[in-house]
Amino acid sequence: MAENDIELGYSPDAMAERRAQLLALLRQTSPEVISENQIDIEKLKELIGQDHIAPAEHYELSWAGKAAARREIQKTTSHTLLPAASNPPQAPHMLIEGENLEVLRALQKSYHGKVKMIYIDPPYNTGSDSFVYPDDYSETLNEYQKRTGEKNEAGYLNKQSLWKKNSKESGQYHSAWLSMMYPRLYLARNLLRDDGVIFISIDDHEASNLKLICDEVFGGDNFIDTIAVELSTTSGPKTVNAQQGTIVKNVEFVHIYRKSSKFDSAPHTPLLDGIESYDTHYSVWLNDDGTLGSLADQLLNDDAVGNDIRRYELSERGRFSLKNIDKLLSVSELAKKFIAANLQKIASIDRPPVSAAGKIIQPGCWEAFETDHRTYFLTTLENGTLRALIPLALNYRTSDDYRPRFGRTVIRGDLWKGFHQDMGNVAKEGGVAFPNGKKPVRLVKQLIKWASTTPDGIVLDFFAGSGTSAQAVMELNLNDNGTRQFICVQMPEVIDVGSELYKDGYRSIAEVTRARINNAISELKAEHPAKTTDLACAYFTLAPSNFKVWRGDVADAATLRETLSLFQSAEKSDNPPEDADAQTAMLAELLLKHGLGALGVHAISKPAQLAGVTVHRVLMHDDKQLWLCFEPYSAALKDEISKTRPAQVVLLNSCFVGDKADELLSNLQLELAGLDIGLTVI
Length: 682
Fold this sequence. Notes:
Helix 7 (173-191) runs parallel beside helix 8 (207-218).
């Protein structure tokens, strides 16, 4: 077995790290509650005090199967991420094909605390959708699939057995859905950065239950808001129902939770909605000499605009009132151009910010004053009162509407209107058809845009569907020169025969996801060739570990003998894996389990020919080198290791061949130990 803390057959468990951190904290702050590496619960209760201990009956969400769902969190996976042989050398993005709970487990070591944002659009539990995953991995996934026939002859997962319809008539209708979501949300939280955020699309079938389990997983204090997204209007067939008095559904929801309060310390981008009407509070004209005038007078006295005012009879008794400005702007392009050209000279009068108290400004003058990320102009009225002039320029920006335009805007709240306009085109987005539920790219782009003003970080979607999140990330990066990376996960759910997707040649949803990502990459490269030279996606498949795993859970003698035989036969081999694809697969797994990520296997590993074999040299986070070699060992390689002094060396057991294999290994272990070089032999 490996001589370090990583059991290489399994993906490291982030839960174990959390437990270790908790124990370390208790040892430091409350050593009296630790005895022989165990927590004395009674002493801990005494220390905390009765007021902080929940009674047997207390406020919480409970359901049938919750205990089993919690146990799912504790499990490790014997699977890894297998990179496709065709992956480009420096792809910034990745699509993983596989069951998302297992994938989340496999990501725990390398991506723990590194994901900036998560967006998921899970099954809504409508009573007609299928979602129940086989969340029982006491055996390997491959064994489970063989035993239950989850894979058909073509290698796709059988929908009929794996994805079961959760009928409303079921006695555990809500429980089954909650048990599916709970461990996935918990593991997803582990992956978020401290300043990270998660967005979850949902409708009214499970919106309330989802919020309750999110309160438990993320903490109620970390709830930010629930957005209501207008995805349809009262039109078409809905009109008939509405006329009969039925309240029709026009919105779906997005629950938003942060990882911690650190999310609030980072700046966020306000989203803007356009407004057609003019705000008549913006009535003041800032003269060049520092005096204040009237916007209405400026419009009337302008030759071109004044002619339109008189032509459309918008003046009264020879004067123009701003109460008619909306009428004017609706008929006069000249008036629109006048307003747009003078945004800095048009202002409203308001109370000055508190931080401006005590400012002394001469009457008839005004000066710029910046606070609260806004620029005011301060002036003193004739009666000596200090006032703030807010330029119209602060109110006129490019909106985030369906058709963005420059004009008057307001900051959007938690009602996101107008996305019904996207739904007419959503079926065509990405160049792939998709069943009901496909979300508009604009929605995901705006969620990402709001989450942070810095265009970087990892965006995770482990219910990827058609790949909307992937397309949104790539388009946003082009818009703002961002460096965001996406990780999308999609299960190879088989597509029903007779569906439009099946007729188009797709056999699994994961194939649809890949096709859409490829389509988006091709379109963006064609439109922006200079800015997309490095745009690419790496593809991975959830697969059994490349290293033998001791099955400690087997109970029957036959399986035990088979497992032992596998280990004995794998102990020594005269044929180390020299195939390039096999080496890449092992390298990817080792990097993943050493916390170095799955992306960029070729980019971060610098293969070199040393002592006649290929050595993969990886620069770790502490600027120290990790060396990995999968070819036969020789004394010449030991000399190279001793000369360069990497921090860690990983070799296969099968690298040591011949009659003196054990002797070579023992000598190497002694010498590297003397040089303080870590050695892992698998």
